[in-house]
Amino acid sequence: MDVLNVITLLGNFLIVPGLTYGSQLALGALGVTLVYGVLRFSNFAHGETMAFGAMITILVTWLLQASEISIQPLPTALLAMPVGIAVTVLFTLGMDRLVYRYHRERKASPVIFLIVSIGVMFFMGGLIRFIIGPGDQIFFDGTRFILKAREFKETTGLNEGLSLKMTQAVTIVTAIVIVALLFWFLNHTRTGKSMRAYSDNENLALLSGINPNKVVLITWVLVAALATVAGTLYGLDKSFKPFVYMQLLLPIFASAIVGGVGNPLGAIAGGYIIAFSELILTFAYKRVVLYLAPEGTEIDSLVQFLGTDYKIAVSFIILVIVLIIRPTGLFRGKTL
Amino acid sequence: MSFLLGQQMTGGYGAADILHDCTIGVERGEIAVIVGPNGAGKSTAMKAVFGMMPLRHGQVLFDGEDVSGLRPEERVKKGMGFVPQTHNVFTSMSVEENLEMGAFIRDDNIQDSIAQVYDLFPILKQKRRQPAGELSGGQRQQVAVGRALMTHPKVLMLDEPTAGVSPIVMDELFDRIIEIARLDVAILMVEQNAKQALEIADTGYVLVQGHNKFTDSGEALLANPEVRRAFLGGV
User: Cα-atom radius of gyration of chain A, to the nearest Å?
Assistant: First the structure.
C-alpha cells in the first residue's frame, strides 16, 4: 500500500508534470535545432517567437470567447492556434526578409547572426509588451481536470491522489502529433529531404539543384509553427507572461545542446532530460520518505536536493557538464 | 570542336591567375584525363569548366553552346555532372536518399535511374538504407558518382575519384568509369594516379603551372619519354 502511495505521489508530482514540461521544452528545442541545422546560427529570438505566437493565439482566443465559440471540453486556444501559427509564420518571414537575409547574402559569420538574433529578441520582446502588456494573461477555458485527485483517491482508496489536468493531456498529445508530423516531413517528403541535404552539405545541395531560398523559407515556416505550438501549450499549462518566455531560453538551449544541436531526435531527448532533471532535483521527497521509513519517523526538512528557486540553475549545470564531457551532445549534432 | 570545350581559359581566385590560356576538351563516349604535378591547376581547370571559378579570358562551350555565364547548378540542368573531390556525399542520409537528391531537379519518375545506378554499382543496392557516411572510401565514391549520374548527364566530371582508395578499388572504379563512357557519356577527370589514368584515357592533358604542357592521346603520352621521365616516375 505504501509503495502504491509512493508511486502515485511520484506520478502526480514528477512524471506527469515532467512529461508535460519536457514536451514543451522538446517543441521549443526542435525550433532552435532547425534554425541551427539549416541556417547555422543560435537563434536567441526563439523564446520571443514562442511568446509572439502564444500572444496571437491568446488574442484570437479572446475573440472566439467573446463570440461564444468554443470546443468544449477542449480549450478554445486550440481552435485559435492555426491563426496564431499563420500570423507568426508571416512575422518570422518578414523578419527574415528585413533582417537575416541581408546577413545571409553577405555570408556573415554565425556570431554576427547570433548577435543579430539578440537584437530581434529585444525588438520582439518590446513589441509583445506593447501589444499585450507585461502582465499575466489567463486564456484557459474548457474542462480543467480529466482525472481529479479526489476521485482517484475515492476509487482506489489510496492516501495519495493522481490528477491529470486537461492542459497536461493536451500538451503531451499535441507534442506527439507535432513531432510525428515533423519527422514524417523530414524523412519522407522531397522537400523535407532537401532540407536535410542542405543541412548536411550545403555545396553539394546547391550542385544538386536544391533551391536554398526555398529551404530557408520552409525552415522558418516550421520554426514559427513549432514556436507557436510550444508557446501556446506552455501558456495554457502555466500562464502567459512575456518575461517567462525569455527565461525559458536557457532550458530550451540546454535541451537542444544536450541532445546534440542540429539533431531533431536529440532535441526531443534533451527536452525530457532537462525537464526531469529539474523536477527530480527540486522535488521535496519528504512524503516519499515518510511512506517508506518505519512508522513513527519524524523529519524536519523537506528532503530536497535543491530549493525550487534554483530550478533554472539545473539546466545551466547540465549544459556546462555536457559541454565539458561531450560537446557534440548525446546524438552527435550538426545536421538534421 | 569538342563536345565540351574549355577554351583558352585564364583566371584564378584572387589577383594572381592560376590558369594561363589553358584548353581542355572531351568528346561524347570518350575519357579525357588531366594529369600533372601538385599545384599545376588540375582541379582549378576542372572547376573553371564547371563554373566554380570565374574566368578572366576564354570560354566554355558545351554542345556548341557558350555556357561561360551560367552558374554551376544551371550547368547541371544543361546536362553536366560534377563529382567533387571531397564532401561529395550527404553523409547523414542513406544511399538511396543521396541518389534521390542527385535527381532533385527532375520531376519525372526516377526509379529507373536508381535501378541503373544499382546495376552499375551492385554493392550500393545492398547498402541502400545505410547512411553514406558509414560506408568505406571506395563505396562512398560510388555513391558520389551515382548521385551525379542521376540527372543522366552528357558530361561527367570527376575530381580525383580514386583519391585515398586502395589500388584494387581504384581498378574497380576505373572499370566502372569506362562502362559509363560506353553509355555515350563524355568523361573528364583529374587524376593523381597518372599512369593508370592515362591507360584508360582517349585524351590526356598534362598541365604544368596552369599551362597545357602536353596534349595527346593517352597511349602517346605514356609512350612519350619526356612525359614518362618528368611526370610518370621514370623509366
Answer: 21
Nearest to residue A47, comparing CAs of A128, A109, A139, A137? A128
Q: Which CATH architecture has domain A2-325?
A: Orthogonal Bundle (1.10)
**B140 part of contact set with chain A, CB < 8 Å:** no
pLDDT tens for B107-165 read 899 999 999 999 999 999 999 999 999 999 999 999 999 999 999 999 999 999 998 88
Closest Cα partner for A234 from A70, A27, A83?
A27
Q: Cα separation of B179 and B122, whole Å?
A: 14
Residues in chain B closer than 8 A to A336 (CB atoms): 92
| Residue in B87, B100, B102 closest to A201 by CB | B87
Contact B90 A200 (CB under 8 A): yes
Report pLDDT digits (tens) over A2-27.
Answer: 888 899 999 999 999 999 999 999 99
Q: Domain spans of chain A?
A: 2-325
ipTM: 0.88
- Determine, for residues A193 and B101 on separate chains, whether the beta-carbon distance falls below 8 Å: yes
A138: cell is: 489567463
